[in-house]
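Quick one:
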Amino acid sequence: MGEQISVDQAEFVMLGMPDVNGSLRGKALRPEAFQSALRHGTAMTDLLLGLDPVDTPISDYERFGIRSGAADLILHPDPSTLHPLEWRPGWMVCVGTPRWPDGRPCELASREVLRRALDGLSSLGFEAVAAIEYEVRVRDGHGQFASSGISYSLAELGGVEQLVTRLRPALSALGVELTAVHTEAAPGLLELNLAARPALQAADDAAFTKLAMKEVAASLGMQATFLAKTAQGEEGSSGHVHLSCWREGENAFATDEAAMRSAIAGVLDHLPAASLLLNPTINSYKRLVPGYFAPTNASWGPDNRSCAVRAIRPGRAEMCRIECRRPGA
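Output:
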């Protein structure tokens, strides 16, 4: 990890909010401006709630975005998410909580949708713990894929050795624990396994991982893309979510099979509507075709990677969980 710096010593602090695609959008603030944002928030635009991945405004929304004039959205830093950027000395990053100009919480922002769901789960006596698996496609400095497409190949990790070696401390500085890396069954496809965290932190970790992976790769002259489907006839890039529910310090999925089955039933029941968030683009839907371990229906099975929800009950209680395999990266 690089030398720790304070906000006052920083060149810039990047203050952002995750969009529906998991990318951080915001501004780079000078230290004085960031300190002001801590007290009063800073103005962004509600257009951030209605942009597609290539920045085209989505014109279907009437209350916010391009059709209503792209009014202000006030972003308030969450100091618990403030971290240094190890690959960009002197810079820091922080996730913010958006509010409407009248002070009301912005209930439409993806991080706030998650927060509201977690509050509902808490009212039932549970805490959600989650871990994210991201698949990312990597090209080297010559534009060639960094691996041939052999899954779980130890030999082919050599093509991404420098990238992974640089990525680990970059993520560590962001508070993200990278637990494992392996090749996947498509050219250049690499899977990143992140450690389990309380669900909101796990979501922040996912956004930080996308940022770090792209920027660290670029600093090495490489390219990393989380595009869900790069080419027909090849594996796509997923963003699997591993989830467990804890109660009074114990994993309820290990001690209460009914709780686990209820969770599976709830995920499957809401999966069609949730796909608006899990697969928010046309490209993400292109990943959902038979034959590539991407679920095409609302199904579940014990330790079955072809299903939308995989139920995992190993011998260790803390590892009992479900895996939602619907999301694209």
